Amino acid sequence: MQGWGTLYRTSVGLGLRYLLRHGYLREAVIRVVVPLDPSRYLELPETMRELDARPGERVLDLASPKLLAVTLARDGVEVVSVDQLEPEIDAWRKLTAGEPRLVFEVADGRALPYGDASFHRAYSVSVLEHIPEPDDEQALRELARVVKPGGRVVVTLPYAREYREDWRDAPVYAEQVAGDRHFFQRWYDQARLERFAAAAAGLELVSSSVSRLQPNLNAFYTRTFPLLVPLGPAFGLLARRVDGPGGDVARLTFRRA
């Protein structure tokens, strides 16, 4: 795998800097102990390449892992990173205090508080699958609305041979109301992916991929967490990318018409 080294070092550096200067912050500890989750070794570098953001451009991040926003800002890109979870935004504001060209704001991806064509590019990594239908498609339309004509929108989603949904016994997100079962995420199959890609009339799909890491240790890593945390870099050093229908990560790159 290529492109993850800078992200990994940025994560550890952010965490250590905060801990040494200010003391304990949960997110700072996570940055050091788990710099990248297994799937991020694939998703984040690919999203960065596909986005192809240039210094001085204004880019919107919709609730992705915030590490990519920091890396882009350090490369000279003006980044606005939004998330509906206020504690997440508060933690990253503390963690990145003083970083130029980087703004964190609380916002709902289904109704973004920005004008039409106000960003050059936008991206969302492993987020829209957590939005109950049909609002995943509404969030894609919002990304299309706020991006300038000719700009790129990059989205990653979990992929499976057959569509399925994951539900939880307890609420995962703040806005979920009490009940017996709570929606967590969907896994898109090819038909559902095509429906999603066609949801925003202003976007033209210019490329896509379905891929996985090989060996794919994501499920095993999750089941045994935190025992395999020290082996984190092995995912980047030893794993290779494999494209094809057996993949579990779908990436869609759009051009704003």
Stretches where pLDDT is under 50 for at least 5 consecutive residues are none
Could you give the count of β-strands? 10
Helix percentage range: 25-40%
Give the rounded overall mean pLDDT: 92
Query: How large is the radius of gyration?
Result: 18 Å
Strand pairing plus helix content: what structural class? alpha/beta
Please tally the helical runs, counting DSSP H or I stretches of 4 or more residues: 9
Spatial separation of the terminal alpha carbons: 32 Å
User: What's the main sheet like?
Assistant: 8 strands, mixed
Series of H and E elements? HHHEHEHEEHEEEHEHHEE
Q: What is the spatial order of strands in the main beta sheet?
A: 3-2-1-4-5-10-8-9
Q: Quote the beta fraction.
A: 25-35%
Shape: globular
Short description:
With 257 residues, this protein is an alpha/beta fold.
Tell me what the structure shows.
The protein is α/β, with parallel strands linked by helices and 257 residues long. Strand 4, helix 6 and strand 5 form a beta-alpha-beta unit. It is globular. The mean pLDDT is 92.
Detail the topology: elements first, then pairings.
Elements: H1 5-22, H2 26-33, H3 40-51, E1 58-62, H4 67-74, E2 78-83, H5 86-95, E3 102-106, E4 119-125, H6 135-146, E5 147-158, E6 164-168, E7 182-187, H7 190-197, E8 203-214, H8 218-224, H9 232-238, E9 240-243, E10 249-256
Helix pairs in contact: 1-2, 1-4
Descriptive key words:
eight-stranded mixed β-sheet; about 25% strand; two-stranded antiparallel sheet; alpha/beta; single chain; about 260 residues
